[in-house]
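[09:14] KT: can someone run the structure on this one? pasting the chain below
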Amino acid sequence: MTTALAGLFDFIVFFIIALVLVGAYLALYTLATMHNEFALIRQNSISAATALGFSLVGFALPLASAIVHAQTIVDLLVWGIVALAVQILVYWLVRLVMPNLSQRIASGEMAAALFLGAASLSAGIINAAAMTF
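[09:31] RB: done, structure tokens below
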């Protein structure tokens, strides 16, 4: 029984840190964007939910990779912050290609939301794969 529970403490610590990083990600990402995702989602905006949802998955993938590869809590925090920064950078890069991105998402345009979501997810996959520390 104790062998089966040997890693439980580490699991709990890493899981809680991951939840805190997800919360920090959602808070910082929604501050960085030019539209209010949560207000739009409360208004049943599928475009806002799609863009934010794919972005969240794009963050969760490298965060999961960081958890797998981390030797310490500091490793997890550093690489979690890197994953967060990459997703915010992707948003700003997509805005360069599509300057009216936030207005389009806020007005319910799915093409803009899907493009941002695909860019976020793609960056997350590449980011996760690149985490080989």
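[09:33] KT: thanks! The chain has one domain: 12-130.
[09:34] RB: yep, looked fine to me
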